[in-house]
Amino acid sequence: MINAWIQQPLITDIFVMLGVVLLNQLIVRAAMNYTVRAGQKIDYSVGFLNIVITAYFALLAVYFQYIGHALNGDATLANFRILILIYTMIYLGERGSGLIVLADDLARLAFYGLNQGTYESWASSAAVWVVMVIIATVVKRLHFHTLSIAMIVNCVGGVFWVLTYFLQLDRMAPLTVQSTLSHFLNFVIMNSLLAYVLRTLDNENNHLSAVTYEATYDQLTRLRNYGMFDKHYSELFKHYHLRNTPLSMIAMDIDWFKSLNDQYGHLAGNQVLATIGRLLQEETRVYPAAACYRVGGEEFNILLPGVALADASGLAHRIQEKVASQVVAVEGHALSVTVSVGVAQLAPTDATASDFYERTDRMLYQSKGKGRNQITVDTGGR
């Protein structure tokens, strides 16, 4: 097995790295059930998830030290150890990565004892850790793209192998120009693959949380969903079409909701939705036949059977004012939002249910086109 590793280092390294990442993904998915709330953006640097992943990579660091001792050479596994240290710093933060470095150093001492190679290993781990603390701080503050992070990591690996070659460290020697270049090229390939896989899996985990979050929208807002709206609206249209009794509709959209989610996280968006859902229920109580629906991520419709356009417009203005005055407290942030609104009444010219719905929707988009936080009433359709 060891001979196969030496003969085909890159292929074997890639498969081992993928195995390490995929096992980590299985652990993350299991831990998410206990630590991540629906819709919450996953943060690996805190909480139970941080403890579980730190423990996993600490055990992995011990295992790699054992394998390195069995192979009688650190150069073979150096890329693994550097990449694990770098990416645990990015994902787990200083404390988590620091514990992994400590586990690695203790394992080194246990398997090799106190010798020149152990001191060199401790010094290189500490140096890489300090460099990554600085880099991780810059990355988080400047919100670097994944490609930029991968390029920075490649630079760190390049500096490591250049210094290792010129210093000819006891635990790495002997290194030739060819073997040093080979180690660095392997590092670049593994890093590129690792960055891509981690980014993909991270997006999948956040998407999984978001899907769960979507499923809780209607529960938290206590509003009926789009499927129920479609059925109820079709029945109302058939009943009120070409009759003298009015049927009005309010279409509403939360302004800049995606930006709010991106800046404060899905948990904040969830609380805003729940607040507006309760507000809509309260404001429509004066109309016993009124029905409120969530028809999209941040879109709401209110059906008002027997309510004339003027009254529907007045209700829309009250809701708009109440929404603007609401303050939602989320983890120390006081958030407030506005809504764009369209109002219309069923008219004899509405030949199909789609005609009325689309006319109300056009009023909504006119409000958004005017700069948002507006109400547009379709007086021409009466």
Automatic annotation (TrEMBL):
Keywords: Membrane, Transmembrane, Transmembrane helix. GO terms for cellular component: plasma membrane. Residues 245-380 form the GGDEF domain. It comes from the Bacteria. It holds the Pfam family GGDEF. NCBIfam families: GGDEF (TIGR00254). This is GGDEF domain-containing protein. It comes from Schleiferilactobacillus shenzhenensis LY-73. The lineage of its organism: Bacteria, Bacillati, Bacillota, Bacilli, Lactobacillales.
